[in-house]
Amino acid sequence: MNPMISLSGLTKTYDGGFQALKxxxxxxxxxxxxxxxxxxxxxxxxxxxxxxxxxxGSSGTVTVGGHDIVxxxxxxxxxxxLVPQELTTDAFETVWNAVSFSRGLFGKPANPAYIESxxxxxxxxxKRDNRIMTLSGGMKRRLLIAKALSHEPRVLFLDEPTAGxxxxxxxxxxxxxxxxxxxxVTVILTTHYIEEAEEMADRIGVINRGEIILVExxxxxxxxxxxxxxxxxxxEPLAAVPESLAEWGLERSDEGHALTYTYDAEDxxxxxxxxxxALAAAGVxxxxxxxxxxxxxxxxxxxxxxxx
Length: 308
Fold this sequence. Notes:
four-stranded antiparallel β-sheet; Rossmann fold; VC0802-like; 2 domains; six-stranded mixed β-sheet
């Protein structure tokens, strides 16, 4: 199956000499939710802006739905909806007119029933006749999403869509994203809320200093790079780890009231019973045992540290 979005050898160097993207190769599958993660300045917004036709790449090719974004830009752009970071709207326009106008920009015929369904899905229906200047920040964010969906795109870019918004909007937005995916829409997400990517994404891409350093199925990434920690709460504090336990690489914590053993999630059964037996043989009494698996945030921070 051909990818919905394909980037090949994409670079971007600005006039001042700053290289924002360095030969990016990336395919995004039709109907998936793809999370693009990276620190500030990594190149996320530049990449999105190029695909959406807002910025011209320096070299390389980009296709959307098989259409080249330069030579066949009208067809490519018609497939894309973009929700930008900035709240840029016509303050004096009404919600209904703003969304309807966005649909018309793509040459789509009027479809009041569809516009109504979009506004209702974003809890904007009751605000349809309000001027945009009267809306709250969260409502303006909802409006940006409605405008991006107005022309029934097959690809939706969400560039930091929940930055600074309330929990209710975040919950509504993810319900909408799941519904869009069920309808076959491809969703590309950038976010600082890594727990959202962990919950929503099918695949994760990590970009740093203009380079894609990893693309992986989320479940595979968590399995391959995740670690587990076994923490043993001690009956009495230890001033130091006994020499007989040195091979386990245990770390003291909680002022000696706990010992922590870190191991690969792939090999999670290895040696746990032996470790507990070794603790008993060393005369270390414990009163509780618990485990913790690394989150996507832990993995992300580790990847950036390795790439530094």
